[in-house]
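Proteins fold. Shown next:

***
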Amino acid sequence: MNGEAQRPEEPSEELRDEVAEDMAEIDAEGEEAGPAAALEAAEAKAAENWDKYLRAAAEIENVRKRATRDVEHARKFALESFARELLAVKDTLEMGIQVADKADAESLLEGKQATLKMLASTLERFGIAELDPEGEPFDPEFHEAMTMQPSADAEPGSVLTVVQKGYALNGRLLRPAMVVVAREPETAGE
């Protein structure tokens, strides 16, 4: 990096207390049995702490692997409930096609409207909002202007006509609405 050694984090108060207790135990054993016994006790405590460290490191690695696997699984199946809901819409469309040759135009239109309503409801349940900005002020973050058209009725800079609706997912733009923007009408002298 920049040549400076990183300073380790300060040990917690709990860890300091535990080390102090361990040292007191070793000192007490060392006073009773001599320096060889103190060394042996210190080595045993070091081995115990090394074992604790290895177990903690293994647990951290397992948690990391589990989290990676969970994120992978979430990405892979994130659309599962949305797809399940869309299957009902697809089934309805297929049923409409199967009965199309036996149905009259009015019942076909009713079926299409019901299917569109079902699809809109499904999209809404999953946070997909329709952007239909007719009459609203033009907003370049959510609207794409196709052209400008003079209008005596609409406020200049407002959306006169929506060519294609836009959509947002939980407030984030998926597709801008394609719109015709109103401008001031030309006067006879221009």
About this structure: The chain has a mean pLDDT of 86.
